[in-house]
Amino acid sequence: MAEARGRVRVETGTKRVRAYLGGRPAADTTRPLLVWESPHYPTYYLPLADVAADLDPTGATERSPSRGTAEVCDVRLEGATATGAALRYTEPALEALRGHVRLDWQAMEAWFEEDEEVFVHPRDPYVRIDALRSTRHVVATFDGAVLADSHAPVILYETGLPPRHYLPATDVRLDLLTPSATVTHCPYKGSTRYFDLHLDSRVERDLAWSYPTPLPESRPIAGLVCLPAERVDLTVDGRPPGR
Question: 3-class SS at 175?
């Protein structure tokens, strides 16, 4: 089943999806809807029949030209409450949304697709990750200083993004990099750690990043360092990388 209105697109998913609150499943379904409310990634809408939590209307409503009118509900489950964390469409503009509820991703304690925990947002079934080992010659410089020189990159190709070149730490000037407090999360790659560049008296914040323990599909980049072409002068076999 697929339905669209404006920029919103709805498809029927096939994965088992569970949302946890208070250490228990607030919802458990094998019939999720994937709803692209924005073009970047989908959101899960779950059948009301598969929601174990109580949905208590707050009296507030939300109106979307593409999705219709929804009542805002608190989500309650055995002593745990997520305030205003559910949208139940009482007057959906898309018929596919009738009888479904949108649980706020961040308000739930954990989400699982099958038996694997998923972070940040649902995985887009149209996004692919390829982490490919290579012997291409990658050089990264900043203001004329060589930051990395490697013949052993792992090139990460991710749908919709430029190729990223992840380099062995031993091929990177680690003496110029210090860990920063910045952490970001990706549902396909995992959690990063970032590094500031210290070059003479200049400091470039969060210039490089690494995934110490990436998710399985991105395991080849574990512990490698990425110096993005947007921030440094990068060459691959003597030429700027493709985008």
Answer: helix
